[in-house]
Amino acid sequence: MQEHFNQEIESLKTNLIKMASLVDEQAGKAFNALETGNVELCRGVKAKDLEVDAYDNLISTQCENILALFQPVATDLRFIMSALMINNQLERCGDIAVNIAQRVKKTREHHSLIIESQILEMGHSAKEMLKDSIDSFIHNNIELANKVINSDENVDNLNKQIFKFLVAKMQSEPQLIEPCAHLIVLTRHIERLADHATNIAENLVFYVEAKIIAHKKKLEKLERGEIH
Amino acid sequence: MNTEIKLSIKNLDAYYGKNKVLNNISLDIPKNKVVAIIGPSGCGKSTFIRTLNRMHEVVGGSIKGEILLDGEDITKIDPVLLRKRVGMVFQKPNPFPTMSIFNNVAAGLKFNGVSNKKKLTPIVEKCLKKAALWDEVKNDLDKSGANISGGQQQRLCIARTLAVDPEVILMDEPASALDPISTTKIEDLIFELKKNYTIIIVTHNMQQAARVSDETAFFYMGDLIEFSDTKKMFTSPDNKQTEDYIRGRFG
Asked: Which DSSP symbol is given to B2?
């Protein structure tokens, strides 16, 4: 049943790529709005999310059917497992793009604060990570996946810096508490987007190299006794 | 979507003497689909498919109820003509051992009065190609049908069945005596053949049923327990007995 099975796998991969393109488009619109302060650019982000959700259900069903009907093993099994996990990550990324768009609308009058706080740098990095993680999946590109994984720390550091900056801003200029609170939530969304991109890249490594690398650094620290 | 029905089975009971082995079976077999029949040993799977080309009568069985082929009652069709329309492939490859590969495929046609080699040759080639065997045997057509591998013998039997241009092919565990590679070839072949034929396959191998069929019927102790879309049956069957059986937790 190789031919039939290959057709099913091809169809699954095509749907994942279509879903990833939608998510990439959603994130692109949200980040463009963030960068330019033009909230009109967010238009359609929420509508696209419904399409993403439909793909989420379709891909879950496809994976269930392939597992039930073909009982894949080895590389094929890892592909289905990765597809299920990547599907889940992409669906979350779609939701996050909607959340980012909403926060952009709420902070539209504070663009200078966005620029000053380095949120644009953080957004740019997260957006690149998402795009690279999708490309790594499409082309089975381990090198690109590793680049994504290694970029996550930079986004985490930016998140911490921005948090400190915004807290200080709230203390020094209490009239900015509300926009700063929105921006803290916004950066949290961006940080989660980068995490999901990292997870996509880790799942690609699992598929291609049969290695589970998620939580690797934390587990190594635990082993060395550096976490109590 | 309107599905064309190739075989319609209505209230079918089957007997060996007084012993009833199938109870009130009703199901429709759609055209150009693969229907798998699954169930534990003795559940009536093989008996069921043998009723469909009246082979059940050959072993002393009898039936009550109705079996319609394109709407026509099969008991009104001459058994030889019926078996031409509803061919059968058995568990153990059974090529005619004294015949060449060519003559094995041509046997059914010769039996039906076609003896001109010019007419036979293109049909034999076409059937061996359809059975995905041509490339492997095209230079050995005069070799005995018994001197090829088990997997090749089974595909030869499929080619022999195709030669008389059937509409329905019944397969009684066609891959159970074969190694995994030959099994894959047979399964790929079934997938290809359904474009032109309606196929009913009995299998003990549930994974095979899941892989090859569009619809699956689960039989138990002569009863049809569930008949549904294969995807549905292997993901969310309606009946608990079916679920227990496909999960291997039967009894």
From this structure: P
State the CB neighbour count (10 A cutoff) for residue B121: 13
Strands B5-16, B19-30: pairing is antiparallel
Instruction: Classify burial at B221, counting beta carbons within 10 Å of its beta carbon; exposed 0-12, middle 13-18, buried 19 or more.
Output: middle
Q: Is A109 a residue whose pLDDT tops 80?
A: yes
From first CA to last CA, the distance across chain A in angstroms is 51
Distance from CA of B209 to the nearest CA of A (A): 8
CA–CA distance, B234 with B67 (Å, rounded to integer): 27
Give mean pLDDT, residues B243-247: 91
Chain B contact residues (CB < 8 Å to A):
184, 187-188, 191-192, 207, 210-212, 230-231, 234-235
**Exposed, middle or buried by CB within 10 Å (0-12, 13-18, 19+), for A109?**
exposed
Closest to B210 (Cβ–Cβ): which among A2, A64, A69? A69
pLDDT tens by residue, A175-195: 999 999 999 999 999 999 999
d(CA A122, CA A151): 11
Q: Say which amino acid occupies A159.
A: N
Q: How far is CA B48 from the centre of its chain?
A: 11
CA–CA separation, A86 and A20 (whole Å) = 9
- Predicted ipTM of the assembly: 0.74
Average pLDDT over residues B78-84: 94
Q: Nearest CA of chain A to the CA of B228: how many Å?
A: 14
- Those residues with Cβ within 8 angstroms of residue A170's Cβ, 6 or more apart along the chain or in another chain: A176, A177, A180, A181
Q: Which residues pair with B168 in a beta bridge?
A: B86, B198
Contact A1 B211 (CB under 8 A): yes
Give A-chain residues touching B230 at CB under 8 angstroms.
Answer: 69
